[in-house]
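Students often ask what a 'structure token' actually looks like in practice. Rather than answer in the abstract, let us consider Xanthine phosphoribosyltransferase, a protein of 191 residues. Its sequence is given first.
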Amino acid sequence: MELLEKRIIEDGEVLPGNILKVSNFLNHQIDVRLMDEMGAEFARLYKDTKPTKILTIESSGIAVGYAVARQFGVPLVFAKKHQSSNVNEGVYSASVWSFTHNQNYTVVVSKKYINPGDKILLVDDFLANGNALNGLIEIVEKAGASVQGICIAIEKGFQNGGKMLREKGYRVESLAIVDKMTDDGTITFRA
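Now compare that with the structural description of the same chain:
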């Protein structure tokens, strides 16, 4: 998506360790017009899937997930990284390693929000190694629902997550795929 790539070039920042910081428009401060455009593009790409729910992981995936859910007119569900006292009924859970935070999370979704037979679109802001998405897939499978596709704002194509998920047979649509980032801030997108 040209609009997202342009924004990454203009406002993104390459940090040491292959980190792409896009906090001022995607995952700390949200550009709502850009989110609307991204949601519309995912709706166009997945119009054939007829999802019943959108599933993401807190917290950075929520804005993108909301934009997609709004386009399809279906609920947005997000996996919580910590089971809180207000999520006290049965849950589906999965273990997810976060390279950004260098720690393991047990993510949970209340059993009342994903049902057998639900058609789920998974959404996240970034795809690098695929750990978060593997956790969400595990939750969907435990619920007896099905993954209709995976919507990614920015994929790090030089890491193995996208390749691994596609090899497993999942349809992955990424609006921007970064093939290379250099220490001087140069970002190369997949053509």
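One point worth highlighting: Residues 2-181 form a domain with the Rossmann fold fold (CATH 3.40.50.2020). Ask yourself how you might have guessed this from the sequence alone, and why that guess would often be unreliable.
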